[in-house]
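Student:
Attend to each token:
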Amino acid sequence: MANKWFETVAVAQRRAKRRLPKSVYGALIAGAEAGVTIRDNVDAFAEIGLAPHVAGLPAVREMATTVMGQPISLPVVISPTGVQAVHPDGEVAVARAAAARGTAMGLSSFASKPIEEVIAANPRLFFQMYWVGNRDEMAARMERARAAGAVGIIVTLDWSFSFGRDWGSPRIPEKMTLQEMMRQAPSVVTRPSYLYQWLRSGEVPDLTVPNLPVNGAPAPTFFGAYGQWMGSAPPSWEDVAWLRSQWDGPFMLKGVTRIDDAKRAVDAGVTAISVSNHGGNNLDGTPATIRLLPDIARTVGDQVEVLLDGGVRRGSDVVKALALGARAVMIGRAYLWGLGANGQAGVENVLDLMRSGIDACLLGLGHSSISELSPEDLVIPPGFTRRLGG
């Protein structure tokens, strides 16, 4: 196990790149259009400095918090991501890792594993929904999540209006037929550990979406589900308020980048928002979420829980987000690289890196708890923030 341990998320990414077939890895790094937003999500964190102390530092640091009513041991939550063909256990391995490290998990409605199987591995599960179909279909999916034991709902409205990739999108098959496996074989055989893992599991990557169908319909393929989403009328704010009324527990709206949308989300009755640009997979040119967070948190942070996702690669990124008003962050690519590099243990590795990085920053900044973080702990360059819709 020691030789599989990685010291940074960047190392996890490099190992995942070496281990995964090119098309699988390509799906993990893709961003919309020219990739302006995906780069800014990461690079913006590096523009913020830290202001450490040198003495009187706390011997014990506390980083536990709650998100949507769930106690978590560190302010990092697993963000919902689609079909996780980087590992045979997919979302179940991620759920086990999150449970082992004491945190909650978002499960995508486009996940490759059914919610009942994932929630058995981690009961602190938030079920994520896109607006697909009509109100009756949305209510039926929500009812399934309720029956399965989901403790919260995440509604994602920031994906995806932009389809082009300047560097080319990886080819993702409709389903893994014999013909498709033959087509993929040249790239897969050059990744023997990936191939062996799937052979040992006795499965082939499942590209169906088991959490989307309602009323006994068969699970669609990923692209079939995507087609259903594209064929659905975009929801109104009245639809958001109606959907929120159907769920009597915590309810997050994910994808907020503007102050006016944050206010409307509060009016719709949500309990949490995530400042998100879908990891750079929405409209390219949208500013980094860490640039948008301060004004949104100042505006609605006393009314709803504010989370951030986008570009988080280390514990210091988490600390910067919390100092600027986030309750917690959600990570996506970071844990997927861990999953691709070393399965469940790789996801646990990523969460451990986040924890140790947060702890190091708390120590250096002289704080005994994440609740003490504030903008005074940061060096923020002039013109760093962006204020949209306000």
